[in-house]
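Table 4 source record.
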Amino acid sequence: MKRKKILIGIVVFVVLATVSLLIANTIAKNKLKDYIVNLPEHITIVYDDLDVSLLQGNITFKAPLLTVKGKTTNQVNAEVKLANLDIKGFGYWSYLFNDKLKFEALNFETPLVTYYHNPLADTDQGSQSVLKNIKKALYIKNFNVNKASVKVINVENDSIILSTNNLNFLMTQISINDDLDTKTLFKFKSSTVSANNLKYQVGKFENLSIDTLKIDNTKTTLSGFSFKTKYDKTELSNKIATERDHFDLISPEIIMDNHNFKFDNTKFSGFTSDKITISQPDFTIYRDKLVADDLTTKDLYSKMLRTLNIKLDLKLIEIVKGKITYQEKVKPENEAGQLTFSDFNATLSHVSNTYKSPIKTKIKIDCNFMQSTPLKVDWSFDVNDKQDNFVFKADLGGLKADHLNQFMQPNLNLKLEGDLAKTMFTIDGNAVTSNVDLKTKYTNFDIILLKENGNEKNKLLSKIINIFVSKDSKDAKDNFRDSNTKTVERDQTKSIFNFVWKNAQAGLISAMAGDGKKDN
C-alpha cells in the first residue's frame, strides 16, 4: 500500500511538472509573440513557426523575415531573411521576473541582408530606435552571424552600392543597460568579422573590391585589395566636364594593427591605428589634359587632415615594395607621357588630426625614379599650422636625361640629352608661396626642341635655347651649380605635386641658365 502511494505521488508529480512546463512554455511563447507584435510600427518580424524549449532555454524562429521601414519615407529600408534564428540559453527567470533579456547565444543562420539606401531615410535615427525601443536590459554572451550575404542597393538608380558573401561575424558579451551614456547604444567585449568578395561603389566613378576581409579586436587584413575607376580612360574623359584622375590601384595585402573604430551613436566618428602596412601596391594614375582644367582650389594635405569631419590618428603607415606610374596626355595625336617610381618604400608617421604642436606629420620615401635613379624624399608639415607651412627635401641620384623623354617628348615637344649626376633640393613653402634651394651636378646637357611633328629637331630654336644653358657644371665649385631662386608662386587650383614640380623646374632653370651661384 505504501509503495502504491509513493508510485501515485511520483506520477502526480511528473504530471504536474509536465503540465507546469507546458504552461510555462506557453506563457513564455505568448509573451515573446506579444513582444514581437508590439515592436515599433516601422519594424516587423514574420516567421513560419516558433519553437520554445523551456528545459534547454532554446528558442528557434523558423524562416524569419525582419523588415525595417524608414520613418520618414515609410518605404522598406532593410530586409533580413534567415534560414533560422536560434536563441540559445534564454534566461526565462530573468525575463519573467526581472524583465531582463539574457541569452547564451544568438545565432543568425545564412541570412540574406538587403539594405535599400535612400537619402531621405533617417538611417541613424532608425538604427538607434531598434535598440532603444527594446526598453529592457539585454545581455548576449555570443552573437553569431554565419555565412551571410549582403547587398546595399541605391534606391535612386537600383544599382548595387555594396555586396559581399560568406560573411561571418562574432561579437561577445553584448550588453544594453540604463547606465550607458547617451552616445553609447551598447557595449561588448570582442568582435571578429570575415567576408569574401566584398565590392563597394565608392562614388560615381570608382569601385573598391576586396577578395578576403578579416577583422578582429586589434587587427584588420585586406587581401586582394583593388581600387579602380569603373570606366576605361576614354569613357571617363567622355563622362567628365573637368579633368579627373583615372585610378588603378591594387595591393595583395593591407594590414591594420591595433586599430579602433569610433562611433558617436551609430555615426562613424573616428579611426585610430598603431600601424598600417601596404604591401606591393601597384598604382597607375592617368590624367587626360585634353579635358578642361578643374579650377577649384586644392588644399594641401595638412589642411585636408585638419578639416576632416572625423578624428583620425594613424601613428605609422608603411608602404613596401610599391610601384607608381603617372601618365599624362597633353596632345591628342601623341601617347601619354609617363613617369615611373619603382621599388617604392615609404614611412608616414603621425598621419593624424589629433596631436598637438610641435609634433609633425613626416613622410620619408626611398625609391627608384624612371627605373634606375635613386630618389629619397623627406617631407614634413604640422597639421595645426593654419598657414600650411611645409618642408620638402629631395635627393636625386644619377639620371640619364633621355630617360625623361618618354614624358617630355609627347607632352612638351622637346628632348633632353646628357647626364644629371646628382640633384638635391629643399622646398620651404606654404599654401601660397615657396622658395627652393637647389644644387645639381651634370655633364653634356642639351635641350632639343622638336618641330610640330614631334620627331624632327628644330635646329635653330634648340641652338638658341642652349646658349642660355650651361652645358655642364664642371666650372662650378665642387662641380655643383646652385640655384638662386627667390619666390615660387603656387597655382592653388593644382595639387601639391604640381607645386613641387614648379619648384624643381624653377631651381633647375636658375642653376643651369644662371651663373650657378647662390646669393649670400
